[in-house]
């Protein structure tokens, strides 16, 4: 059984300008212990998807199902969901200052979180918090446990949040742009830490990012999202060497080559569409160099790129016509 099975998830919000269709029919599954990357520009629906699973999209109209260990998160009562959140599914968000309460000591927050889910004494929870802070690389954790969040650096706060996320040994960790606010060196350290802890604890990880470069090397599978739908789903190799969707190729081209020098960065022209007034047919057509008449009229469904493959793309272009793809790859190498 999959750990998580999301089926035809749709999320919309009513606003004075009209209905915002943030997520429009997203399905995916995740096996225990695996890493799923969800990539897209802002407004692609990547964060809304996982916030909906966590019950954090109040006021939204939600349909579909999201079975976690067999139970549908979308129909679960609020109390049950609160128990799942934190204990079996933990979340790490971009800005640790908004997730750590500024007025309470870091250790106290971890201790309270543990005690909200498990009947352990304060002393036991405190010992566990010190161990966790040590495990995520906070130096002298027994001394730093009583610091306030502002006494930690940005990187240390993100480590503390990871410690808090891992405190209850979750089966799934959702990390939404966990390193965006940090400088490049600290970013790499935090990603390494997350992956090491994932391997040690055997948890599944969903990593959400706007930067394909962040997850291309570490995710088992990647979902590329555009305008609330999945544009392409592929494993790491499929994504790197046989990316099918023009949008995915655009994202790949905008990653600096690892060789660095001489790499040309080509941002994708145009802007993501308004989710209130979506383009007809394929939502990417106004920005796509390959757009044909059919693209303007009919919305492509996610379909297998090769037979018997999990690799799927929502694009009308037949794979064998993507000669330019080869050219793109040669340029990238
Ligand atoms: Fe481009 Fe058409 Fe494919 Fe959409 S369906 S990505 S417009 S080629
Ligand atoms: Mg986001």
Automatic annotation (TrEMBL):
Membrane topology label: Peripheral membrane protein
SMART domains reported for this sequence: AAA
BP GO annotations: peptide transport
Span of domain ABC transporter: 4-252
Keyword Nucleotide-binding: yes
Entry's localization field: Cell membrane
Extent of the signal sequence: none
NCBIfam families documented for this protein: oligo_HPY (TIGR01727)
Entry's family note: Belongs to the ABC transporter superfamily.
Protein name: Peptide/nickel transport system ATP-binding protein
Native organism taxonomy: Bacteria, Bacillati, Actinomycetota, Actinomycetes, Kitasatosporales
């Amino acid at each position: 059984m999959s750990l998580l099975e999301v089926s035809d998830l749709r999320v919309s919000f009513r606003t004075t300008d009209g209905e915002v269709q943030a997520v429009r029919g997203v399905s995916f599954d995740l096996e225990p212990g695996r890493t799923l990357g969800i990539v897209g520009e802002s407004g692609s629906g990547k964060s809304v998807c996982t916030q909906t699973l966590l019950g954090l999209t109040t006021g939204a109209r939600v349909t579909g199902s999201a079975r976690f260990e067999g139970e549908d998160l979308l129909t679960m009562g609020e109390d049950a969901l609160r128990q799942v959140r934190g204990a079996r599914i933990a979340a790490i968000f971009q800005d640790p200052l908004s997730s750590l309460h500024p007025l309470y000591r870091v250790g106290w927050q971890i201790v309270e979180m543990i005690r909200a889910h498990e009947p352990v004494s304060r002393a036991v929870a405190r010992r566990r918090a010190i161990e966790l802070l040590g495990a995520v690389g906070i130096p002298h954790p027994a001394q730093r446990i009583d610091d306030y969040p502002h006494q930690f650096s940005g990187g240390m706060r993100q480590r503390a949040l990871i410690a808090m996320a891992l405190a209850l040994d979750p089966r799934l960790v959702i990390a939404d742009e966990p390193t965006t606010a940090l400088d490049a060196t600290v970013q790499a350290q935090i990603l390494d830490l997350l992956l090491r802890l994932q391997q040690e604890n055997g948890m599944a990880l969903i990593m959400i990012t706007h930067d394909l470069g962040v997850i291309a090397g570490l995710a088992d599978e990647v979902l590329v999202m555009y305008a609330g739908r999945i544009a392409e789903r592929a494993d790491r190799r499929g994504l790197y060497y046989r990316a099918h969707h023009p949008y995915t190729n655009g994202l790949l081209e905008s990653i600096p080559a690892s060789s660095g020098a001489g790499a040309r960065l080509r941002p994708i022209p145009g802007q993501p569409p308004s989710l209130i007034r979506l383009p007809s047919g394929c939502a990417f057509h106004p920005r796509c160099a390959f757009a044909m008449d059919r693209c303007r009229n009919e919305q492509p469904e996610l379909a297998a790129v090769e037979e018997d493959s999990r690799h799927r793309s929502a694009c009308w272009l037949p794979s064998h016509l993507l000669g330019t793809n080869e050219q793109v790859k040669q340029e990238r190498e």
